[in-house]
Amino acid sequence: MEKILVTTDQSANSKAAIRFAIKLARQRKAELIILHVYHLLKPFKWSDHAFAEYTDSFRKKTVEELSSFIAGIYHDIDEPEINHQLVLVSNIDVVDGIKDYAGKYNCSYICISTRGAGALTKIFGTHTAKLINSSSIPVLCIPSGYHLKDLKHILYASDMTDYENELKKVVDFARPIHASVEMMHIAYPHEFAFDKELAEATLQKKTDYKVTILNPQRDITNALLQDIDHAVKISKPSLLVLFTHQSRSMFEKLFFPSNAEEYSFYGKIPLLTFNKKEER
Question: What is the pTM of this model?
């Protein structure tokens, strides 16, 4: 069975990701794992026994708090509970704890909340930004202010370098939830124009799924993000998919500039990222 891992620190910001993960797990008939990573420092004067007792007490209390926290989320969304597993992991580094657990237990997706507008770490928070750049498992980034809705339309932003393999991953995500898929490629003026209907028919044959194409022209007087933002406004997706195959510095510069809050899709639309660096 597919596994969806969602992280929480019991903050209000993390509620959006849990709501999203609950709905997605139900739609995909997946196992839901709710993960909390913690780290305790042992006081120098404490014995091993005393610290073990304290750790056990801390974990029991945290499980109780998390159970109450999650019950409150179910109450807010007025949805019946689905089976989920509540997991506590000890790790000095939160992101390493998330990645280690997700990898060890073959999770298909990691779901985490973002924090809103600003530069990369301000948009996503330090942990989410690090996950985007380092996780070999796809990361779903859910804006903290996101209002739960059906995922009906997925927009996949492609640079066409590996679109067949990438599109298979996008369709694998879309198919179980019956979402439409649109592939967007922003074409530069010198690029060869293709037959849209023929291209869409070819993609459908290769993926066994209907895929439409959005092929806006690049306006070189704009920043690339302006063209992407304009295309997003046209497509109106429920989810935006990016493949982070650039170097970290290039990816951050391209997609997360200091003025990112000016673009409509930041902090509003869930983002699914695949890290191709780790797959090679």
Answer: 0.87
pLDDT at 245: 59
Distance of CA 148 to the CA centre of its chain: 15
Strands (E), the chain: 3-7, 31-38, 84-90, 109-114, 139-143, 153-157, 180-184, 211-214, 239-243, 271-274
Please tell me whether residues 7 and 130 are part of one structural domain.
yes
Tens of pLDDT, residues 209-229: 999 999 888 887 877 777 888
Q: In degrees rounded to 5, what are phi and psi of residue 214?
A: -115, 120
My answer on whether 165 and 72 are in the same domain is no
| Long-range contacts of 58-64, Cβ-Cβ distance < 8 Å, separation of 24 or more | 59/88, 62/36, 62/38, 62/88, 63/88
Domain of 199 in residue numbering reads as 153-274
Instruction: Report the C-alpha gap between 140 and 137 in whole angstroms.
Output: 10
- For the domain that residue 198 is a member of, what is the CATH number? 3.40.50.620
Mean pLDDT by 10 residues, the chain (280 residues): 94 92 94 96 94 97 96 87 93 94 97 63 61 88 88 90 91 96 85 82 94 86 78 90 64 50 63 69
Q: Is 35 inside a domain boundary?
A: yes
